[in-house]
């Protein structure tokens, strides 16, 4: 069974600095998708970035980028120029890809990011 | 705005009661997922429907049930409520076909407080 592990329950970063959140996963599949979701205090789940496993190029969305290491089954999120609004819980998620219409989205336990002014 | 609509946003009810949470997926999305998030916890997958059919079950209690209707909206029914059922219940939706997109989008959640 697929698992997603976020080993950092909490991280802190100074405003304007860079922080990296770690995520590892376990799977026997070769085709899948990975996501990072942000959950601010409002508790809404917001998609930050996604990565297709078949793409070797790391995904980037403005200040957010990932370091996808398929062989190591690692998917870390780098936040550059951290802003106060980045403070939130961040969840890593894995989606297995099938053609039957049945997908499994598995979430890690989350990393709480604090941004210090 | 993710396009996923959940009602009610907040609900307070007594132990032993029954409630129904409603979800309208994004236009065109055939899959609906329900998740439970207790305070300061991660997301627990409850159940998934695809085009009206149950496709996957997670840690869903027998007191809970769900269904997806022909218009693709879904309802999560919670009965014999206990204090421990107090949580944020998320509905999410996604396209089912690989070529149509592969991201799961969440509604704003329904806050359930059992007193």
Query: Counting H and I runs of at least 4 residues, what is the number of helices of chain A?
Result: 0
Low-confidence stretches of chain A: none
Runs of chain B in which pLDDT lies below 50 for 5 or more consecutive residues are none
DSSP helix fraction of chain B: under 10%
Mean pLDDT over the full residue set of chain B:
90
Protein structure class of chain B: mainly beta
Percentage of residues assigned to helices of chain A: under 10%
CA-based gyration radius of chain A: 14 Å
Could you describe the largest sheet of chain B, including whether it forms a barrel? Answer: 7 strands, mixed
Net shape of chain A: globular
- Tell me which oligomeric state these chains represent: heterodimer
User: Total strand count of chain A, please?
Assistant: 12
Largest sheet of chain A: 6 strands, mixed
- What's the gyration radius of chain B in Å? 13 Å
Structural class of chain A: mainly beta
């Amino acid at each position: 069974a697929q698992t997603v592990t976020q080993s950092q329950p909490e991280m802190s970063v100074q405003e304007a600095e860079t922080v990296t959140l770690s995520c590892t996963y376990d799977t026997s599949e070769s085709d899948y998708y990975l996501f990072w979701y942000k959950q601010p205090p409002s508790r809404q789940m917001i998609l930050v970035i996604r990565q297709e496993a078949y793409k070797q190029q790391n995904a980037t969305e403005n200040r957010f980028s990932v370091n996808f290491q398929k062989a190591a089954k690692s998917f870390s999120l780098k936040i550059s120029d951290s802003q106060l609004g980045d403070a939130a819980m961040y969840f890593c998620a894995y989606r297995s890809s099938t053609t039957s219409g049945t997908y499994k989205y598995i979430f890690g336990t989350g990393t709480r990011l604090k941004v210090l002014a | 705005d993710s396009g996923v609509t959940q009602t009610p946003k907040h609900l307070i009810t007594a132990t032993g009661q029954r409630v129904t949470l409603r979800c309208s997926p994004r236009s065109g999305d055939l899959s609906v997922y329900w998740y439970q998030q207790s305070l300061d916890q991660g997301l627990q997958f409850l159940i998934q429907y695809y085009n009206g059919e149950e496709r996957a079950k997670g840690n869903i209690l027998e007191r809970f049930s769900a269904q997806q209707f022909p218009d693709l909206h879904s309802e999560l029914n919670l009965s014999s409520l206990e204090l421990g059922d107090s949580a944020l219940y998320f509905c999410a939706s996604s396209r089912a076909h690989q070529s149509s997109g592969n991201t799961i989008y969440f509604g704003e959640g329904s806050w359930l407080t059992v007193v």
